[in-house]
Amino acid sequence: MIGLLIDITLLTLLVGVAIAIARMKDLFAVAMLAGIYGLLTASFFVAMDAVDVAFTEAAVGAGISTLLMFVVITMTGRSEDPVRHKPLLALLVVTITGSLLIFGTLDMPYFGAPDAPIHTHVAPRYINDSMQEVGVINLVTAVLASYRAFDTFGEVVVVFTAGIGVLALLSVARRREDDAVIELVNDSMHEQHLILRIVTKMLIPFILLFALYVQFHGDFGPGGGFQAGVIFASAIFLYALLFGLSTARRVINQSIIRLVAAVGILLYGCVGVVSMLNGGSFLDYNVLSSDPIAGQHLGILLIEWGVGCTVASVMVIIFFNFAGRQEDNQKAQNEEDIDANRAL
Amino acid sequence: MTLDINTIVEILSGFCLLIGSFLCISGGVGILRFPDFYTRMHAVGVTDTLAAGMILVGLMLQNPDALVVIKLLMILVMTLFINPTASHALAKAAFHNGLMPVLDDTEILNSKERNKTTDNDLEPK
Amino acid sequence: MLIGLYNYWVVVVLMMIGFYIVIAHGNLVKKIVGLTIFQTSVFIFYISIAKVEGGTAPILHAGIEVYSNPLPHVLILTAIVVGISTTALGLALTVRIKEAYGSIEESEIQSQDNQIQDAHTQGALSQSTESRESP
Amino acid sequence: MLIAATLAVLVAMILAIIRGIVGPTLYDRILAVNMFGTKTVLLLSLLGFVMGRPEFLDIAIVYALINFISVVGVLRYSGTFELKQPSAESKEE
Questions:
Q1: Which domains does chain A have, with CATH numbers?
Q2: Average pLDDT, whole number, for chain B?
Q3: Using CA atoms, how far apart are residues A329 and A326, in angstroms rounded to an integer?
Q4: Which of chain B's residues have a Cβ under 8 Å away from the Cβ of D57?
Q5: What's the pLDDT at A111?
């Protein structure tokens, strides 16, 4: 009963927030509401038992996407043009599509029905047999990393490609920065936001450690490479936000991080190739070791590492390129302002 | 009537949860009803941390499993660190950017128009 | 029926709100937010159909018999990470458009494109008339 | 008691959302987001106990961390909180 109440409340709140997003003109407010929207979705996922998904959505929807949105808005301008294209026509299209879809839902099995078609085909095998076949308590990890490993490989490649795309679109050729200037900036910044900096310094090792825990605990509880990668990256974001991008660039070498992104995928692919060389099919871990269950564990461990490396480094690449672009734009703007002042 | 230890723990836990819930709701009412940013911040900043602490302690008393208690403790410690820091940074940023507190009664009456103008005034650059 | 299908109706409503934002707003960042809402509604749909009445999270535990369906969870878990990557790519394109056109409003970009196109076609026309007259 | 606390947290979440939508200043919205994040952490911890699987508190920990990161990010990029650099501007003064 309480579950149903929470479910309905969260969904209603989601609709409310979405309508507010549609009506809001100030893009900063839109981005902030989008953050709230992400948090709400993640709470809903927990209420629906999807703990692994909630884990990912928490880190991605509320953290990284809001942050990226903010960086972009500072570059592209804060307010939206009030003119809209024919809202009535759009409303008409949307209403017709929506009512057709709702008509379609009338034939669906009711929410939570145990005899719905989705629960009768492949799911019972995962739930009943995976303990013997894979030997991992967390069924989501078992399906993700073993039964559907090839699918996951594709997803990781998509993430990697998106990272390359952002790199191609936004990376700027960078002069070597003067270390002395960076020192000076750091000293001058140390006075401001002292409390934030100290608390952050205490938190960052903890976040990194927690990311590793999530990475290795994926077999027994919610967690795994995707979540760990995102959390690891967010610790680096926090550092870059408070200590400046140039300092963060010196800590995290850009060419190494690009290498790590590629090595992650390579590791994943190599596990597949090795299992083929051992006489199995692609990504069939049973042949990796004399004991099939041990082979499965080894394979899952390795590919989760690959996923974690790639996701973390792609997220870092994306954020650093966005933030670097923003900093360059701001610098150019400042110089223009100073020139204008001089002209006056 | 004898009270065994379990009943006492149960009652204590219920009491903590009750206080936590009360603080939650009072903070919620505060953020909605108070007239300007700083008073709202006061309402939230004060109640939020204590409410979180109370609810988490209440939950800790409910469960004897060591791992769960440690995780709750971790959440508690992090809330104690993070919440006041975030409030501090937020209030400082607001004050440095010239958002003034409402000091006068008449201003509270006019606060609707006043607040509307501030949103545009504070636009960066 | 109202409770049995409420989740799906909310999914449809959210999807349509996202769709409306994408087609009715001209601002590219707003459009991307609309796409995110659309995308999230699909996530909610998948997770909703995975739920089994009385089941718990699909992590094996002694004494629990009914688990929710793990397969949609797997699909959505990867979809979320892929979703943020594609969103980032879209935002990167937006930034480049802003730098090239000085605006991210669709109507303004369109009018600038039209001007360039007009200039080109006029140039081409005058050239072709010249080339026709010259021989 | 658990259920009552869950409901109280839900009510507080609704109130925070209303403040986040109404505004009126940017800071009010940040405050609402921050409060909403804390309440989500509490809701998740409570949900674990209500559903009888309290071992999923990892998610609540992630929320607490991410909440801090997003508040810092918002402050940093809303132009209210610039990391001042000894640029040409300050040299000229």
A1: 1-80 (1.20.120.1200), 136-344 (no CATH)
A2: 79
A3: 5
A4: 68, 71-72, 75
A5: 84
